[in-house]
Give the backbone structure.
Amino acid sequence: CGSLYRTKAVTGGEAIWAGTGGGGIVVFQDGKQTVYNKDKGHLPDNNVWAFLETTDLDGTPILWVGTEGG
């Protein structure tokens, strides 16, 4: 379990998204880290398997997150 993803589009600047095996997601950007997890209501499960970046119809970036819980 776990995944790394590097993007500029979703966060408006270069960022590394780290999916963990039980700790949710940690985003590293501009020397800071932000945690997104189930306890804070951000994810359905803290085991993160994958990331997929797409855009909606108007071109807005969307980052999909695949977790063990959906």
About this structure: The two ends are 14 Å apart (CA to CA). The longest strand covers residues 48-55. The mean pLDDT is 91.
